[in-house]
Amino acid sequence: MHLRSLLILPLLAFGLIGCKDDSAPAEQAAAPAQTFHWKMVTTWPKNAPGTGTAAERLAERVNAMSAGRLTIKVYAAGELVPALEVFDAVSRGTAELGHGTPYYWKGKVPAAQFFGAVPFGLSTQEMNAWLSKGGGQALWDEAYAPFGLKPLTAGNSTMQMGGWFNKEINSLDDIKGLKIRMPGGLSTQAGAVGRSLRAVRPRWASRR
Fold this sequence. Notes:
single chain; alpha/beta; D-Maltodextrin-Binding Protein, domain 2; two-stranded parallel ribbon; 5-stranded mixed beta sheet; 20% strand; 7 strands
């Protein structure tokens, strides 16, 4: 499965669109541009390779592309809110942006995990095609709309291994009772086959 980083925003368009009213007086066009300062909370440790650095890179690019009109301060997990409170923090307006992975929110939106990673699910290219051309984005928007959020993709770690084990695994009986960090749909499916798996949250998930 793959870890999809995502951006969640209040219900507004992400991006500054260069529009102007040609009929506006010249003195109005010369007025100083309005600037915006947003907070981005993330589910990642500070500067975590791949995920944490991707959030920082996104903020840098937004600043550059907007010529400084929109600056984003990135907060690692626990700096402003705990990792697993990112969804709620953006929904209630504590921060304007969130960067995380959808399967963390399956307790609030069961369908969220399908926009991130499910066992034997879509590859990176297939996911991007589904979201942009196959109606996936519309379904994602619909799922998050009751919370006042607009989801967007903002990175993809592509496929991950199913697990690294300290003993040989030859059958389903061999995984009974193991502690495994497996968020999202994999833990649900493991329970469906009658195995006793104890899902372990990331170490940083409860930090403040």
